[in-house]
Specification:
CATH architecture of the largest domain: Beta Barrel
Strand order of the largest sheet: 1-2-3-6-5
Shape: rod-shaped
Radius of gyration: 70 Å
Order of helices and strands: HHHEEEEHEEEHEHHEE
Largest sheet: 5 strands, mixed, barrel
Helix content: 40-55%
Distance between the termini: 168 Å
Length: 414
Amino acid sequence: MALMLWIFVSIAMFVFIALALRSKSKNQNPRRHFRRAGIAFVTGLALFFMSVAVPSEVEEPVDQTASADEDAEEVTEEATEEETEQESKEDSEEEEAAAEAEKEKEESIEAEKEASIEAAEKEKEESIEAEREKEESIEEASIEAEKEKEESIEAEKEASIEAKEESIEKAEAEKEKSIEEAEAKAEAEEEPVEEPVASKEGLIPVSLYRVVDGDTVNVIDDSGQELKLRLLLIDTPETVHPNKPVEPYGKEASARLTELLNAADQLYIEYDSGDKTDHYDRHLVYLYADDVSVHEVLLKEGLARVGYIYEQQRYLSEFRAAEQYAKDRGLGIWSIPGYVNEGGEGFNSEEPEPEPEPTSEPATSEPATSEPQETTEYFQNCTELKKVYPDGVASDHAAYQSKMDRDKDNWACE
């Protein structure tokens, strides 16, 4: 009987050991199985010693043996129940621990996931913020660069304007200085324009009849004869040419000559060597208002130029000096760039007609009818005509032109 119990207990012990090893391989707690195996081992060992200690000769009463068996069975059952309860408790604890561990694991995974999402979102936000800051920085840099560029352009523009103004001021200062020096030199070197005539020898007294233009005058000599004069070595802008418009400073030259001649008590003419008349039977002379050369006055005031130089050159150097005086100061005709035809004769408002050369032939070789009609007045348009004739002119007037009479009522520019 004891041997059977021992075998039974040994089998139970080995079963519990196997279960413990299995639990250990599955990463479970094997303690309860080891505990059961230990209990089985202790129980079997106790039964073994009990069976050995009792002599085989002593026969116990049947009821005592049965009682012992029952006690052993009760102990075994109690131990088994305790083990079962302990196992159930341990299983419950293990399940709770496993559930708690699983929960913790899930929470850890969830926390890691949330942390990863938060980190990704934070990184994304930081990246967006960095990109925005970068764009703002680039935009600010671009605005700053554009502002600096505009400031640089403005500074260069101001510097250019200042340099230009300085250059202009410097040029004006140099020009004024040059003019002052030229004036001082001219005043020191050249003779006054209104120089008295030292001697009236060779001068012929005449009286004014009328002024045709700035370089042409009609006078009456002592015998009462009318002389048509062409002033030597000067040329003034046209005012009465039938085929040319009134040229700039032409009227001013005529007005100034008229003023000089009307203010004089006596007029004189002087002939030079060479021809005394031209093809138009005009007398080639120098004209004086009292003791003043009208040639030099017109030249110095910029109302005439030196021109038509032939064999009569008695006062050419004096006339050149007077012309240079006006030219240096930009007076009159010299105030218009390119107006004076310095490479030839006349002025550049229109192509001038060449002045006829003096001839040694008698004045009667050309008919008197070749003289231009000095009574003709030419105006380029009504604006110019109205400056002289504000109410216009009739068809029998010397200044009348049919193109200015648009309504064909024989009255131009009314």
